[in-house]
Design goal:
Elements (H helix, E strand, L loop, with lengths): L13 E2 L1 E6 L5 E6 L2 E5 L2 E5 L5 H9 L1 E6 L5 H9 L8 H4 L4 E3 L6 E3 L4 E10 L5 E11 L12 H4 L2 E4 L4 E4 L16
C-alpha cells in the first residue's frame, strides 16, 4: 500500500549547489541554491530569485560558479543560504570560506569546496529566476581524485538536500556500475 502526499517538490537526491559571483566591486558572494541540475549536455540550470544579490551579480558579470557542497563544510554551505548578500557583504568570510578568481570565468571559486563548475550565463528568466549557464570548465581539488584521476565522490564527501525531512544527507556507497548492472537482464 502507498501513501499519497499530493503534489510536492520532492526529488532525491537533490544536489546542494553553492553559486558564486562577484559584485560590482569584485567582492565575492555565494548562495545555497538547492534547486538545480543539469539542463543540457554542457549546461546547468539553477533557480535564483531575481531579488537575490547573486541574481544581480550574475547579470552584471554574465558568469558564475557552482560548487558542490560537502559534509566538511555543511555549516558554511547552509549559512550562505540563510543570509542575504544584500544585507551581509562579508558572508563568505563569516561562513569560513575563502575565494579566488576562477580560471575561465569572472566569478569566484570557494577554496574549501573541492569541486566547481565554471559557467557563462546563457539565460536568466526575470519572472521565475530560472538561470541557465554554459559549463566551460569543471575543476577539482587533487586531494579528492582517485587513483584513476577521476573525482572520487567518497573522498569529496558530497551532500544532498532531503526535501522531505529538511536535512542534508551525505552521499556515499556504490549500488552498481552504470550501464552494466542491468545488462544481465537483457
Amino acid at each position: 500500500m502507498r501513501k499519497n502526499f499530493g503534489p510536492q517538490s520532492w526529488l532525491f537526491p537533490m544536489p546542494v549547489l553553492i553559486v558564486g559571483t562577484f559584485d560590482e566591486e569584485n567582492r565575492p558572494d555565494a548562495m545555497n541554491a538547492a534547486w538545480g541540475g543539469i539542463h543540457d549536455t554542457n549546461q546547468i540550470a539553477v533557480c535564483i530569485a531575481p531579488e537575490h544579490k547573486t541574481a544581480k551579480n550574475l547579470l552584471l558579470k554574465k558568469a558564475f560558479t557552482v560548487a558542490f557542497a560537502d559534509a566538511a563544510n555543511v555549516s558554511g554551505c547552509d549559512y550562505v543560504g540563510l543570509v542575504s548578500g544584500n544585507s551581509e557583504k562579508h558572508k563568505l568570510e563569516k561562513a569560513g570560506f575563502h575565494a579566488e578568481k576562477a580560471a575561465f570565468v569572472d566569478a569566484p571559486l570557494i577554496r574549501e569546496l573541492p569541486v566547481s563548475l565554471e559557467c557563462r550565463l546563457v539565460s536568466f528568466d526575470e519572472k521565475t529566476g530560472c538561470t541557465v549557464g554554459e559549463i566551460v570548465n569543471v575543476c577539482a581539488d587533487e586531494k579528492i581524485l582517485g587513483a584513476d584521476g577521476k573525482i572520487d565522490a567518497e573522498k569529496a564527501g558530497f551532500i544532498a538536500f532531503d526535501p522531505v525531512c529538511h536535512v542534508y544527507r551525505r552521499i556515499g556507497g556504490v549500488a552498481g556500475k552504470a550501464f552494466e548492472i542491468g545488462a544481465a537482464l537483457k
